[in-house]
Design brief:
There is one protein chain. The chain has one domain: Rhodopsin 7-helix transmembrane proteins (Rhopdopsin 7-helix transmembrane proteins), CATH 1.20.1070. Helices cover 74% and strands 3% of the residues. The protein contains eleven helices and three strands; from the N terminus they run E-H-H-H-E-H-H-H-E-H-H-H-H-H. Helix 1 runs antiparallel to helix 3, helix 1 packs across helix 11 and helix 6 runs antiparallel to helix 8. The termini are far apart.
């Protein structure tokens, strides 16, 4: 692969092509990144320390928060440096590494969200057997399977992208090394690689999404049979945060990757990427804490202890 490649480095455009927007872009994304980092660290710490949160649902939430910290850190710090210095130079190997790490984390989150849907489905459909089925070992196995699957899936896409020869131009119209903008720089016909990548992505993502939808079909069909309004509201409240995250993640991610690279628009690509790679993981702590009394109590207890 390296013998075919003449490009030794790429140039990332950053968040915007307009230099005048840097004064707005840098503080905004620094604030969002800091808020997300603080929120996710708080959730990981609270779930670890608070004994009442030692349940499968919060175990998955803790792993999701850790994943989101890594997810945003794979792209935002480099993009902020580019916006601040105006130099978007990234070596070929760094670009390969960034794409692989980012997709490993993104794919792992996809599979982890499916595992969380399965967890909520069991909790509502099989409440008496829930504690037996979703024991600590089963939860750990599901999380490990999500990480391994994400790493394998990402390895395929990384090889599929960088097996193409790159001999110029080398300007990536994006704020990180992503498949569509990188693939468009290939100095040969990339449509076969594009179609193979699209087919694999469609199978994996749609399968994961279909399992999530099936879980929620089972949840809804069970909840609507609960006689009391209070009972239905309590059951739905345990799923609303996860459902919000699923809609945001799959909605913006599908817009970016489930379409041909030939139809890729730099402006639309950046906007979609900002939603699924920056805003969604940074806002997940807020989404999961707004309507969760146990999490609110644990966070209040955590910060009160620090203040004291």
């Amino acid at each position: 692969m390296s013998n075919q490649t003449r490009v030794t480095h790429f140039i990332l455009r950053g968040f915007s092509d307009v230099p005048e927007l840097r004064l707005v872009v840098i503080p905004f994304f620094l604030l969002v990144y800091s808020f997300g980092l603080l929120g996710n660290i708080s959730i990981v710490t609270a779930v670890t320390r608070e004994s009442r949160l030692h349940s499968p649902m919060y175990f998955f939430l803790k792993n999701l928060s850790f994943l989101d910290m890594c997810y945003t850190s794979a792209t935002i710090p480099k993009a902020l440096v580019i916006s601040f210095t105006g130099s978007g130079v990234i070596s070929y190997r760094q670009c390969v590494a960034q794409l692989y790490i980012f997709f490993t984390l993104a794919c792992t989150e996809c599979f982890l969200l499916t595992a969380m849907a399965y967890d909520r489905c069991l909790a509502i459909l099989r409440p008496l057997l829930y504690g037996v089925i979703m024991n600590q070992r089963r939860c750990s196995e599901l999380v490990a399977a999500a990480w391994v699957s994400g790493a394998i899936y990402s390895a395929f896409h990384t090889f599929n992208t960088f097996s193409l020869p790159y001999c110029g131009p080398n300007v990536i119209e994006h704020f990180f090394c992503d498949i569509p903008p990188v693939m468009r720089l290939s100095c040969t016909d990339y449509h076969v690689n594009e179609e193979v990548g699209f087919a694999v992505s469609s199978c994996i993502v749609m399968s994961s999404f279909a399992l999530t939808v099936l879980s929620y079909v089972g949840i809804v069909s069970t909840v609507v049979r609960i006689p009391s309004v209070e009972g239905r509201g309590k059951a739905f409240s345990t799923c609303s945060s996860h459902l919000t995250t699923v809609v945001l993640f799959y909605g913006t991610g599908s817009f970016m990757y489930l379409r041909p690279a030939s139809r890729y628009s730099p402006t639309q690509g950046r906007l979609a990427s900002i939603f699924y790679s920056v805003l969604t993981p940074s806002l997940n702590p807020l989404v999961y804490c707004l309507r969760n009394k146990d999490m609110k109590f644990a966070l209040q207890k955590l910060y009160c202890q620090r203040k004291c």
